[in-house]
Amino acid sequence: MDIGFIGAGVMGRPMAANLVAAGHRLTVHRDTPAARADLGTTVRYAASAAEATRDCEIVVLMLPDTPDVEEAVCGDDGVLSSLRPGTLVIDMSSISPAAERKIATQVAGAGGAYLDAPVSGGEIGARDGTLSIMVGGAPEAVEKARPIFDVLGSRTSHIGPVGAGQVAKIANQIVVGLTIEAVAEALHLAEASGVDPLAVHSALMGGFASSRVLEVHGHRMIKGQFDPGFRIRLHHKDLRLAAEAADQLGVSLPGMNLVHVLLDRAVRAGLGDHDHSALRLLRNERAD
Amino acid sequence: MDIGFIGAGVMGRPMAANLVAAGHRLTVHRDTPAARADLGTTVRYAASAAEATRDCEIVVLMLPDTPDVEEAVCGDDGVLSSLRPGTLVIDMSSISPAAERKIATQVAGAGGAYLDAPVSGGEIGARDGTLSIMVGGAPEAVEKARPIFDVLGSRTSHIGPVGAGQVAKIANQIVVGLTIEAVAEALHLAEASGVDPLAVHSALMGGFASSRVLEVHGHRMIKGQFDPGFRIRLHHKDLRLAAEAADQLGVSLPGMNLVHVLLDRAVRAGLGDHDHSALRLLRNERAD
C-alpha cells in the first residue's frame, strides 16, 4: 500500500522501516539526517504533511504530543489540505483523547476515516514489531488498518470509538506508574528495615502483589539498573495527559496525581532519561 | 505434636481445625462459643495463654493486633509465665515488626525460640490450608516449624531474621493497596470517558499493567462485586502498621500514606466490611 508516514522520531523510524520491510511504499515526513540514516532510499521523503498525504491510501502519524498532531493534520500544509476522500488517517501518537475526537471530526468532514491507535512497548517494541496497540474508531476502519497493525505490533485491542485508544493508553500508564511507585515503596521499606529486598520480592511474586511491574521493574530497582526501558520524562508526559483528561472530565485521580508529582520531581532531579523504575531513587532523597 | 493455639478468631479457628485434622493435639485459648462450635471436643481448651503454653512443644498465636500479642506473650498469665526452655513460639498475627523483635528477645531470655510468620490468603486460605506464609527467625526454628506451615499454607517464604516476616507482609499490603487504587483510577477514567471498562481491562492485561490485582480486583470493580474477600478495615489496619514502621524508620512512603487515607475514608463511609476492591466506590463520591 501507499502510506504517508508523518513523524520520523525514535519510535517512528523503526516503525516505518518495518512497514517498508513488509512491502509497503512509504512517503516520510520529515526529511531529517536521522531518517536518512535509518531509512536511506527505501522511502520517499516529503517536505510537508500535505505532501506525505497526497496519493496515499493510508496516513500514519507518530508524533510527540497533542499540538504536533493538531498541527500536522489541521495546520497549514497539513494532512487535511491534501486529503483525498476515502483516505484512512491513523494517529499512533500518545495524545489527548478529547483532541483526537476533534481532529477525527475534521478528517471525517474532508471525507476521510480516522483511528487513534497509541502504543505501548517502547523503542524495543517498535523495532521488533511487538508493540501493543490500543485502537479507537469505527470497526471498518480498524479492519482496513489491521494489515498495518499486524506489521507494527503483536497485539491489537479495539477499545471503542475514536478517543478510546488514548483513554486505554492513559489508563495503562496510570496503572503502570502507580504500580512502580508501590514496588519502590515496598522495597524501600524492606531495605530500610534491614531485610533482603530480593527475599521480599520473591515472597510477593507468589501472591496478590504479583505483577509484571513487580517482576521486571522490581528486579531493576534491586539491581540498580535504571537505563531505559521507558523514560521518566515520557511517563511524566503521559500522566500530564491523564491529569488533563481527569480535569476535563471532572474526576479525581489522587494516586495518579501523586505519581505525576513524583515523576516531575524525578525529572527535576535529573532522572528524566532514566527508566521509570528510577522512581525508586527518589526514596533516597528524604531530608530528615 | 502438642500445640498451644492462642487466638480462636475468624482466621485462627480454621487454622486450628486443619492442625487437628493433621493429627496434632491442640490446647486452644480462648474458650469461646465460636471456638466450641467449630472445634468441638477435638481440642482441649485453656483459660489463659499460660495454660495453653504448659506442656506444649510449640505455641502458635493468631491474634488481631500488636497489643494482643504483647499481652498474650508478656502479660500476666501469658506465654512467658509457663514457657519451658526449648519451646518454639510462632506468631502468625500481622503486627509491628519492631514489636516482634522485642517479644522475641524476651522469649529467647526464657529459653524459647521465636518466629514471626504472618500470612496472606484470608479466611479462604485459612480454611483450605493454602495460606502464603512469610517467616522471620532462625533457620533451625523455621525447620522445626515447617510441618506446621505445610499444614496451614501452600507456600512458605523464609525472609530473614525475626521481624522480616512482618516487613514482607507490610510490603505485600503496600503493593496490593496501591495496585488496587491504580486499577480503580484507571477504570474510573475509562467509565467517565464513556469507554467500556472491560475492553480497557482486557487490553491492559496484555502488557506491563497486568497484575493479579488487575485481573481479580479489576473484575470485581467492573461487576460491582464487593463482598469480601479481604475487608477494607483489615487492609486499613495493615497500612497503619506500614505507617508506624515508616515513621519508626524515618522513611517516606507517600503512595502508602495516600491509600491509608483513602482506606480510612472508606471505613468512615461505611465500607469497612466490603472487599478492598471497594476503593473503587470512593471514586463516585466527589463533590463537584
TrEMBL record, chains A, B:
It comes from the Bacteria. Belongs to the HIBADH-related family. It comes from Lentzea alba. This is NAD(P)-dependent oxidoreductase. Keywords: NAD, Oxidoreductase. Residues 2-160 form the 6-phosphogluconate dehydrogenase NADP-binding domain. The active site is at K169. Pfam families: NAD_binding_11, NAD_binding_2.
